[in-house]
Amino acid sequence: MCLTSSFIPQSLIRESKAPPSFTSKMQNSPSKNAYILIVIALSVTAFNLVVWTLGNSMFSVVLKIVKPQNAAFTVWKMLAMIVAAFLSAWLTEIYSFKRIFPVILLFATIWFITGAVTANFFAIELAVVPVILTAFLTHGFVQLKKLWIIDKNLTNNLVSLASEGDVLEGRSADMRIESSIRLLETIFPVSEIIIFYYELDGNLKPIGRTRKDCPENSPASRQNSWKNCILFCEKAIDSRTTQIQNHKTNQDAAQIALPLICDDVIIGVLFIDVKQNFQAEDRNLLESFSSQLGRNLQRQELRRKELPHNTWWNSFSTQSLENRLDITNLVRGIIKEQSFSAVAGSYLLEAHAIAYLDGTLAYMNQRMKQFANLKSADVPQTDLFNLLERFKTDVFNEPSLAIRRVMQTGDSFECELNFPDQEKTLGMQINLVKIPVENIHSTAVQQVPACFLISFRNISAVKENEKLRSDMTHLMSHELRTPITSIQGFAELLLLDEETLSEDSREYLRTIAAEAQRAGNVLSNFLSIANLQQSDKQEVIKTSVEINEIVREVIEDFSKTAKQKRIRIVECQDQEIPPIAADKGLLTKAISHLMDNAIRYSPERTSVMISTILETDFLRVEVEDRGYGIPKGEVEKIWQKFYRVAHDGVEKQENTTGLGLSLVKEIIEHHKGEVAVQSVEGRGSRFSFRLPRL
């Protein structure tokens, strides 16, 4: 196999970085701008003085009206010209041409009339012509200076935008071309690929070539083959259509020449030699591919051009103007590719909308229009709040509060919207999109809010499955609980008549009763976890509860069990703990499981401490024992379902289920809290959870 490539390397692509714009420099240094205005004003004044002194014959007609005979040129007349020049320069710099030119014209008219009156009736010359010429010429030069700065700023911004184009494109132009060729080689069994650039003189310049299975041909044969390839590609350029030529010996093999056209301009030609399995239907695929390759090639060639823009005469250069036109074509191509993402959004099953911070909708895909029941004619008049108003429910009844919360916290807002009349449930999410101040692809710099992203997802099928799972869980619990209860009950009933039973029979019955009770506990805990994991969370009923009261009830329930093992329960309560919003039954179950574990896994003649602690925004409950502890490698596993810690030298507890701590974690997380554990093997453990205050 022979593989050659002549793609333009990354190092040859010009990545010029434009300097700060000239206008920004002027704005940042007002003294420099003032110096330029002073130079313009004094230069124009000096020019008019020379013209006035040496060229009186040029204004002979006007002078008869505004200049008395034998009038001499004095210093105050020169001062008048300087004042007129500075006023004209200052006003032109501040105001636009449309506003200041009528003012200067009115001044010239009034000054001319005044000069004529004073010259003919009072024999006083006001230097009418020099002052008027000074005002107009200064105005013209300052206006040209402003236009030149704007032109310079425009060129700098365009060059900077072209230089930073990779930020939007994601990859450089030549890398995209190489990626395109690799994709083409993956799809088709090609033996040769050549990319030609179409130069202005009409010649085809090869800029990339990949060839496999190179035959050992003579130089004359290779030259003839290359000539035929050029003629074949020129035919594609002349016709501006795809040219296909099947091989004489193998109809499944073909040579294809595709003109690379971008913005109705031929950029180059793509030549492909397919060895086998070429079908007529592949033509559409190749033409779409060549369209993308044409844009990449145009982008590559534009980036390689020299873009001079730092000298003052570039504002009057045709080459500079052509470069700016090319840059606009480059930017237009980038914007066109960026628009593909908006079109691709119409294929998503989720509904998405993007809104600016002022509430104006920037984008809305087709699915969002369907969910909101919006017609295309209504979209321009719809803003963020009008859109959310269409999804109001009993729960989501004030969309403005949701927007306010998102803007205040920066966190996403999630909610489930139920529409019983439509038999539909939507999952809604509102996010505040933040972007870096400089590079939009960077995440290591300061980010600022840019827009809102609103998403809706139809979760009706998910909710239906969850309901079905819940129903099945309750059904199975009923079907399993009944026989388990019966087994346990009959075993305990038989044990009442111990005198008539043998020792083996009594042992068997005790085992049956214990295992039935254990199976019932496993089923009860499993069903509790399953119910908590239902997304509707209907079993979590929050009311105002006193955590200290729950702790006292749990201590009372476990006092008998603790006495049997000679374990002392120490209560340490913070009396300042306020009520919290929680499900009393679930919290009682969570604390009970922690107390049960602490007593179960503690040796005799030790103590268990339960504490309630008030924090700034949370309240904490801790259960600490002096038991066997947890091995360091198993601390994170204890919250998993059915996981039980095995202790060396400690008999395994067969009547435990491994679901207690998992249930505790589910309960606390459903109350927006978090669990924690600290343990030292052989010295005891401290389990804790904290809940947000009411």
Write a concise synopsis of the structure shown.
The protein is 50% helix and 18% strand. It is an alpha+beta fold.
Oligomeric state as shown: single chain
Class per helix and strand makeup: alpha+beta
Report on the biggest sheet: 5 strands, antiparallel
Number of helices: 19
Low-confidence stretches: 1-28, 61-69
Biggest sheet strand order reads 2-1-5-4-3
Radius of gyration: 43 Å
Strand content: 15-25%
Structural shape:
flat
Helix content: 40-55%
Overall mean pLDDT stands at 77
Q: Report the end-to-end length measured between terminal Cα atoms.
A: 74 Å
The tally of strands reads 17
Keywords:
694 residues, alpha+beta, 5-stranded antiparallel sheet, 19 helices, 17 strands, 18% strand, flat, disordered N terminus
Please write out the topology.
Elements: H1 22-28, H2 30-54, H3 60-66, H4 75-94, H5 97-121, H6 128-163, H7 165-169, H8 173-187, E1 190-198, E2 204-211, H9 219-239, E3 243-246, E4 254-262, E5 265-274, H10 282-304, H11 318-344, E6 351-356, E7 361-364, H12 366-372, H13 384-389, H14 399-409, E8 413-419, E9 424-436, E10 447-458, H15 460-495, H16 503-532, E11 543-545, H17 547-564, E12 568-572, E13 580-582, H18 584-600, E14 607-614, E15 618-625, H19 660-670, E16 674-680, E17 684-692
Parallel strand pairs: 12-14
Antiparallel strand pairs: 1-2, 1-5, 3-4, 4-5, 6-7, 6-10, 8-9, 9-10, 11-13, 14-15, 15-17, 16-17
